[in-house]
Every structure is written in structure tokens, then in C-alpha cells.
Amino acid sequence: MPKVKRSRKRPPEGWELIEPTLDELEAKLREAEADTHEGKRKVEALWPIFKIHHQRSRYVYELYFKRKAISRELYEYCLNEGYADRNLIAKWKKPGYESLCCLRCIQPRDTNFGTTCICRVPKSKLEVGKIVECVHCGCKGCSG
């Protein structure tokens, strides 16, 4: 997740409508980064950061692709400035990845057996009553 960089370039028209929400998510992200990690497993410390990163990217994605509320220029500005993850949004546009939680869940090199994460297995294929929790981001199952 890249840090949000602010360029000197003027934001496009419509920026003032989405800026408060993005600033609020940015403040939550900074708060999650500064939060203490006492009593948590090593991997659990990053879960809130992944969750907020997902929310921010999903917000921009839905504004542009679902609701068509922002212009292409503003969408590109958000991607270039680091407000949304370009690669994650590219996956959301593909069939089967519409609700993907993070890119680490589909990278086979991050798992023990060279497959995708357990959260990508459909709930109908899992044992009844088994609680699934992603090691990377804390997702409870993003395959549907």
C-alpha cells in the first residue's frame, strides 16, 4: 500500500465532493497505524490497515464504475495520488474477483502450498461450522 502523496497539481473538478470522505479514511488509516499492537498476534496488527485501504479503494471504485458519480479525470487523479489501489480495482473488474479483499490473498507465493488464501474458498466447499479467517488481512471469506 503506497503512502498517499500530494502533488502540486490542482485536483480536477468534483474533488471537493469526495475529499471529506477520503480525508476521513486517511485519518482512520493514520490512527490504525499508530494504534498499539499489545495483545495481538503479529499478523493481526496489520488487519485494520488492510481493511481501511480496501474501504478507500472500494469507495473510489464504486463512485466511478457503479454510480458513475465522478469523471474519468478525477478517477485517474485518485489513482495517481495513491487514494485508491489501481491493481486491486483492476482485479475487481474481472469475474470471480468482485469482492476480493486484498491482492495478497491471490498470490500463491504467500501460502505454504502454493495456492490461494483460505478466504478465497467458497463457504459451500468448507466444513460446516468452520470459521475461516485470512492470515494476511483478517477477511472472513471474500469468494462469496
UniProtKB/TrEMBL annotation:
InterPro entries: BUD31 (IPR001748), BUD31/G10-rel_CS (IPR018230). GO terms for biological process: mRNA splicing, via spliceosome. One of its GO terms (cellular component) is spliceosomal complex. It comes from the Eukaryota. Keywords: Nucleus. It comes from Geodia barretti (Barrett's horny sponge). This is Protein BUD31 homolog. Belongs to the BUD31 (G10) family. Pfam families: BUD31. The lineage of its organism: Eukaryota, Metazoa, Porifera, Demospongiae, Heteroscleromorpha. It is found in: Nucleus. Its main location: nucleus.
